[in-house]
Amino acid sequence: MEEPKIIFENDDVLVIDKPIGLAAHGEGADPAGTVVEWFLRRVPAARGVGEPRVGKDGKEIERSGIVHRLDRDTSGVMILVKTQASFDHLKGEFLERRVKKEYRALVYGAMKERWGTINRSIGRSTKDWKLRSADRGARGHLREAVTEWECLQIGQYQELAFSYVKLRPKTGRMHQLRVHLKAIGRPIVGDQLYAGNQLGTGDDLGLKRLALHAFSLTIALPSGEDKSFETPLPPELSGAIELLG
């Protein structure tokens, strides 16, 4: 499996470009094939840094260094912490919503406007409790979720419309971007969980992955320095955008 690429490193943090197919951490005690496993091989002194969390099986999840996460199928910028003091600082930055995140995605269909804001609370899907939903009737505890979007390009492939969009989540809910875009009828290309009957439309622009990339992250480091980290689009996503003309 492809390993993360290091973008930046100091005594407090390690910033990576996470490849697709690599989970942030394992659900149980075994972190095999995860960002955490790779991170602890590189920074063994960081073991135990963070907040303990117990999985459904009652075992503690190995989450050393994790202060935020990307879905297994999402590529891009992710920051890991080496010390407990760094974790406490960055956790505060995320909780206070001072971290600026920008994603890029390809979606099915043509966005109707140039930009907009999706302000829809997220709960559990009525069809599958494991999935999230921003649709009316979502179950469980509804959590505020806000996503700003901008349409960068609209094009056609196999006589079908697709849009290339910039996404700025203002909150950090699980599957937020995927769920919000589904809720406005523009699910992300290749989304096995949320695209429904649109999955496979236009051959998914030839992609064999979720068309979602964490493009940049701007954050105040524990040193007090504001830093922006950016990762280029993976070649397969750049190629899919070129298909749109």
UniProtKB/TrEMBL annotation:
Give the Pseudouridine synthase RsuA/RluA-like domain ranges: 12-182
- Read off the InterPro entries from this record: PsdUridine_synth_cat_dom_sf, PsdUridine_synth_RluA-like_CS, PsdUridine_synth_RsuA/RluA, RluA_PseudoU_synthase
Which SUPFAM superfamilies does this UniProt record tie to the protein? Pseudouridine synthase (SSF55120)
Record GO biological process: enzyme-directed rRNA pseudouridine synthesis
> Sorted alphabetically, which keywords does the UniProt record give?
Isomerase
**Gene Ontology MF: a single term:** pseudouridine synthase activity
Q: Which domain of life is it from?
A: Bacteria
Protein family (similarity comment) = Belongs to the pseudouridine synthase RluA family.
What protein name does the entry list?
Pseudouridine synthase RsuA/RluA-like domain-containing protein
